[in-house]
Amino acid sequence: MIAVNDNFGCLPMSYLFSEVGRRVAGFKSENPEREIIRMDIGDVTQPLFPVVAEAMHKAINDLTCSDSFHGYGPEQGYLFLREAIALHDYKSRGIQIETDDIFISDGAKSDLGNLGDIYSKNCKVAVMNPAYPVYVDDTIIDGRGGELKNGKWSEIIYLECDPSNGFLPALPQEKPDVIFLCFPNNPTGVAIEKKELSKWVDYARNNNSLIIYDSAYEAFVRDERIVKSIYEIEGADQIAIEVRSFSKTAGFTGVRCGYTVVPRNLKGTYSNGEAVSLNSLWNRRQTTKFNGASYISQCGAAALYTEEGKRDIKKITDYYLGNAHIIKRALTNSGFKAYGGENSPYVWASLADNIDSWELFDKMLKRFGFSSTPGSGFGSAGNGFIRLTGFNSRENTERAMSKLK
Ligand SMILES: *Cc1c(COP(=O)(O)O)cnc(C)c1O
Predict the structure, then answer these.
(1) 289 CB burial (10 A radius; 0-12, 13-18, 19+)
(2) pLDDT value at 351 more than 80
(3) Cα-to-chain-centroid distance, residue 140
(4) What is the pTM of this model?
(5) How far, in Å, is the centroid of ligand 1 from the Cα of 387?
(6) What pLDDT score does 18 carry?
(7) Pocket of ligand 1 (CB under 6 A)
């Protein structure tokens, strides 16, 4: 039999979402008369915008005629989309990111994992605790995790986020090579101000660290002081990769399209000391292992940069933000400590008396008839918390929250 990647043997079973599903189903079968509302959904519920659907229909028509047929596209993505991104997401906001810095992907999750191909196996990785599980799991699969001891990996540096620091981690004591940051954050729903993120950019510049900045939720930012792109900070193009997605912004979770910015100013070194541009390494990696996102999804994504597309994004994110406000207010009024939910679709909550995440999950399910995501699934610092999302419909959100009264 084939020898396999031992690192998979180290990965704990991912049971979070299946366990949530199992408990919900169990409760349903014991209480068939009770209505259960899913407040744990990490997927969006509202459909694609008409302007996107129209662009995708047109793209399909292109593919059905021999003179407008598109086969393999550029691995980096079509120029029409990269130009729209450079213009609307960066240059028009005063940020010097060029078309050549942008790589279109089939979504943020794959790139967040694949980026591990271009930094050394010896790199020490730092993650926020709690965090979106992809950063830790990919670090383990790539062999950078070390051993699991008391719920933490020996080679990973944990950036602790809790109410005492407002879920904004302190700079690490031990020097990481790669730092995963995510703002507005999943799961805590906390966003970051420019002054605070500047500390991280300075730290990375002074310590030769690379920041991988997950900004999947930038479209939910409303407050002027909150950062949308890490490149708003001077010098960040020398130390940061930014990963973005149309999934939560525009209902692309099933369509699949996102992008990653690897600025040409970003340099690394081979072990012999020779300098190299990370942009050229990522380009080499993508041209070898990726054949591009589909023409149809890229045409759909480009439609998001029309006036109609921009209006639709504002409208849909306003809708989910409205749900998050309803959730946060209801939880706060019922004696919970609730965080996030502003500039973010996520609300992170705990009860004053420190009960464990699964206990809290069960309690909410049984007493109030809605599900949540136990915070412990996002890392040890998530214990005692649950995550509720603004992604359900307004009607379901209101109904679930009215039960808290
Ligand atoms: C949903 C999510 C992603 C992944 O998005 P896709 O583009 O659908 O792969 C990435 N990062 C965070 C923090 C997310 O919540």
Answers:
(1) exposed
(2) yes
(3) 19
(4) 0.97
(5) 16
(6) 84
(7) 107-109, 132, 182, 186, 214, 216, 245, 247-248, 253, 258
